[in-house]
Give the backbone structure.
Amino acid sequence: HYHQKVIMKNVIRIGLLLSLILITVLKCTCRDIVQLQGTNFELALTSYKYIAILFYDDSSDGRKLEAQWKAACESMEPSDLPAESEMAMINGKDPELKEIIDAYGITLPSVRVFRKGIMAEYRGPTDSEGIAAFIIDDAQPSVKPIWTVKEMKKILGENSNTVVFALMNPEDVSTASDEAIEGYSIDPWGQFQAAADSLRGHAWFYVVYSEDVRNSFKLKASDLPVIYMVSNEGDGFVKYTGEILEMNLSEWVLRNSAPAMGELTVSSSKGELYATQFFSSRKLKFILFLSPSMLSSGVLDSWKAIAVSFKGQAIFSYMTQSAVADVVEYFDVDVNRDIPLIVGHLPSTDLKYKSGKIDIRDKEAMTDFVRGVISGTVPNVLKSEPVPVVPPVPVGGSKASTTVKAAVLKLVGSTVLETVSSPDKDVLLLVFAPWCEHCKKIVPTYDILVRAVQGESRIVIAKINALANDIPASWGVKAFPTLLWFPAKDKPYKGVPTPRNYWDAGFSLLELVGFVQREGSFDPKTLKVATTEQLGTLMGDEEALR
């Protein structure tokens, strides 16, 4: 298979050379810039490890960017870019390119970078000098080698960003992954490269071959590969313990590193990367909400100084009004009434904090709020309906007690965590929204489910209105209705309760009853649930209600 792949790659490269007959090459003073066409665009992506492409048009901005792009090319030496790296341009209005433009979501004019066939946003400047400097640096490998202890000490001593390094034996570094034009090998070296490329600009990645460095960590050659991170928070060496896969490794880096104070926005690729890093971190975080008119160097300087004074304890950012709609919704901020204010969030417990309207000219007041959250003197905020009053169960006669109808337990923000954490109970929770039509359709069946299990005190059937009450973001509820399962066998929880998802075929009474029996924590033979005959009667009620 390997030889077949090599042959195919050579065929592709030969095909590209033949296709260059159709390519107009604009001769520059020092480098050639390739003018692509829609017919050979995809072929070019499979022929370069790195290619930066300008998608231009006839607009004023398009002509300006095209001129700067050409000038950047002219200023570069042929040796400035690594082998199999290139700069190119293509007319975004080429009819042959329309499907590609739509598929990649490319706006005109703009630049896209393709590294091993995978597209990334261009985050560099737009003047010729800046473009040339950025492309020369961006085309270099994302993983750099470290050969000596002295070199490693220098890198760690001079670098204020997060550093990730893999200690590997030379034989662990696969040449197959290095030579590949498309994709990454599945071995640790290939996956480490993939993570480095995906987090380029966020952290610095190195591969260490030095035996002296390995010995300083008291590692044997047989222990490798081993990955460590040194974050910009000064937490020392943090060892990676998971399987070396790009997605797992990237998430680990994001969660255990902290960005410098910056602006939360999704209006630019750089902003999206920062927001991803900020919200992926498991550290306590604070966000200063401002309106555009409140932005000033004085306010941001004060906020940055506060961030520096609490470095290592929390991370900080700021946001203008509703720049990130999900954040506004999550913290229930009225951007017309509440701003300016500071919000805080502790991911490990999913606790939220709000300062209320605050005087941003009063640095001491802002500092006091942050300090209070960290010390525990500022209470967290919780959106919650009033706790419903449960009518007492009649006593004193069998007739009275048998006429009481079981009802779904209504939970609110202030009671949901305690209830689902009950150590000796299996809890099935329906998360709904009042406007949801699908929710309304399953409510009758859900109500009858309570009657089917009303004789079993170890099973709790509950519901919560997610629009009127806070539930942990870690539960990942993105649609309604959502059923979450909290079996007693998973308890006690460490930190925020972790539910299992309801995964059965549907929401019929038989399916729901079968699920709580089959997936429950208790011997089904001991459960006091409706008999087959009783379920038949209840199913009749279900059909009548529908």
